Structure formats: C-alpha cells, structure tokens
C-alpha cells in the first residue's frame, strides 16, 4: 500500500507564532481521515501544510513520497479549501469553475478533450448542478457554491480528496448531497482527508480521526463519538448546571484539551 500524505514533526510558524507544533500524520491510500478540533486549533493550517500550500518552518511532508517542491502529479489531489469565495465579482459560470478542476490533467497547449467534457458533466451530475451549468457561480446559494467546489475537485478525478469543512454553514439539502458524494468516494476506495468541527452523520464513513488542540495532535485513532457529544472537539462551552464528569471516564486527549 502506498502512502498519500506523510508529515513528520510538521511545524508552521506565522509571524513568529507557532501555529502547528510538530505534527506527525500519515495517511495511507484508501484511508478516510477526519481532522477535528476547535476553532483556530490549526486544522486548515495542517491540511494546507500537508499539501505544501503552507510552507513548513520545521519537519517534513511528503505527497505520494515526494516533497511538495518535487511533486509533479497534482492531478492526483483534489483540494476543496475552506470558505473560498468563488464568484467574488468574477462572472465565471458553474461549468467554467468545475472545468478548472481539469487543468492539472491537461497537457500544455492542448485543448479541452471529450474526456475533459465528460468528467465535467459527470461531476456536475454527481453534485446535482447539471441544470445550473451555464449560470454565474455568484447567482448560487452558499451551499450550491460549495457543491461547485466539490464538483471541481471531482472533475479532476484525483486519487485523494482534501476537504476543508465542506459542510460548514450549508443548507440541509447541500449537506445531504455532500454526505452522499463523500460516501460514493469512500465506496470507490478514494483517499479522503476531511476537516470538520463535528462529524455528525459522516462519522460512519470515517476510518480514523485526528484531533488538534492549539496546533498539537492530541488524538489519532477511532472517531471520538464513543465518549459522548460533550467530548466532541469544538464542544468546549461550559454547562454550569451539570455535574463534572469523572476524569477517569474521559480519554486522555479530551482531558488534554480541557486543561489547555
Ligand atoms: N495567514 C495567517 N496569518 C496569521 N495567523 C494565521 C494565519 N493562518 C492561520 N493563522 C492562525 O493560526 C491558528 C490556526 O488557524 P487555522 O485556520 O489553521 O485553524 P482552524 O482549526 O482551521 O480554524 P477554523 O475551525 O476556524 O477553520 C489561528 O489562531 C489563526 O488565527
Ligand atoms: Mg479552518
């Protein structure tokens, strides 16, 4: 089995502040890994560093065995960044944005092929936006725009998907659509790294969960739903009327988070 992502002691420092503090993370082909953690815990920074979009200030990271600067097979990775405002003033149509997902597959100077057109049509169909293909992206709802970004990643037919909070703040219909798409990808044996605040209905799809707290990996293993909703990352508000849980009933990574 080959390894899609392999970070060792990954460190990110921005303006002298340590944002990622020595994270080890290996994602094998076919794994479905959730990256969980509270706001600002470093989830987006971690996936950006995994992809080489965010340079490391220490440690190493490999994409299919190569450091980002020597990686050439970008078509193998479909990245859906968090809160990308596609459309922001640019009158691109849904089809154009989705077609941009084919760029890493196209040879220089080659025009769009029928394989490109088919992949774009299939991706639009998968996310239920075939009938909106000619519309400006800016005319779509937030959830539909998120689906456009997913379709762009799908259109590239990558081996690995890196999705940064794809369901955050989208309508119920789009959430359902995304869950279905994710489940299809998992069924097809794709590698998935999924950033989320909470897994919710996606939990059964995930083979492993990594939890970040203040730039440190504090858990790497089974998804943490077994310990109850209050232990979920991000659920860090106080319930003054409830008794303190017995410390021994909580796994160590939860305690580490609460003490931080
Ligand atoms: N470009 C940047 N400049 C300055 N600080 C940054 C930058 N990118 C991230 N940070 C800081 O690094 C920390 C981690 O940010 P990051 O976006 O990775 O967290 P996150 O877990 O993805 O948060 P969220 O759940 O809100 O998406 C935060 O404190 C953030 O303010
Ligand atoms: Mg984020």
UniProtKB/TrEMBL annotation:
Top-level lineage group: Bacteria
Xref: InterPro entries: AAA+_ATPase, ABC_transporter-like_ATP-bd, ABC_transporter-like_CS, Metal_Ion_Import_ABC, P-loop_NTPase
SMART domains in the record: AAA (SM00382)
GO molecular function ontology, one term from the record: ATP binding
Region of interest called Disordered, as start-end residue ranges on this chain: 228-260
Entry keyword set: ATP-binding, Nucleotide-binding, Transport
CDD domains noted in UniProt: ABC_Metallic_Cations
Keyword Mitochondrion listed: no
KW ATP-binding (keyword) present: yes
Ranges of biased composition (kind: Basic and acidic residues): 233-244
Every ABC transporter domain range: 2-239
Family statement: Belongs to the ABC transporter superfamily.
Name the UniProt record assigns to this protein: Metal ABC transporter ATP-binding protein
Organism listed in the record: Herbidospora galbida
Lineage: Bacteria, Bacillati, Actinomycetota, Actinomycetes, Streptosporangiales
């Amino acid at each position: 089995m080959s390894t899609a992502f392999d970070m060792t002691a990954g460190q990110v420092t921005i303006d002298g502040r340590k944002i990622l503090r020595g994270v080890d993370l290996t994602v094998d082909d076919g794994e479905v890994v959730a990256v969980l953690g509270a706001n600002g815990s470093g989830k987006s920074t971690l996936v950006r560093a995994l992809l080489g979009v965010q340079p490391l200030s220490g440690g190493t990271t490999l994409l299919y065995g190569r450091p980002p600067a020597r990686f050439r097979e970008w078509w193998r990775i479909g990245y859906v960044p968090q809160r990308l405002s596609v459309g922001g003033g640019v009158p691109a149509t849904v089809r154009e944005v989705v077609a941009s997902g084919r760029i890493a597959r196209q040879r220089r100077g080659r025009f769009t092929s029928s394989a490109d057109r088919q992949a774009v049509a299939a991706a639009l169909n998968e996310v239920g936006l075939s009938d909106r293909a000619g519309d400006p992206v800016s005319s779509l709802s937030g959830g539909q725009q998120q689906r456009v970004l997913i379709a762009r990643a799908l259109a590239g037919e990558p081996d690995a998907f890196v999705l940064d909070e794809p369901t955050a703040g989208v309508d119920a219909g789009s959430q359902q659509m995304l869950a279905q798409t994710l489940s299809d990808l998992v069924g097809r044996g794709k590698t998935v790294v999924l950033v989320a605040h909470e897994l919710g209905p996606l939990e059964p799809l995930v083979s492993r969960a990594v939890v970040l707290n203040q730039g440190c990996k504090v858990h790497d293993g089974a998804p943490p739903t077994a310990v109850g909703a209050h232990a979920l990352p991000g659920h860090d508000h106080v319930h003054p009327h409830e008794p303190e849980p017995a410390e021994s009933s909580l796994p160590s990574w939860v305690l580490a988070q609460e003490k931080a």
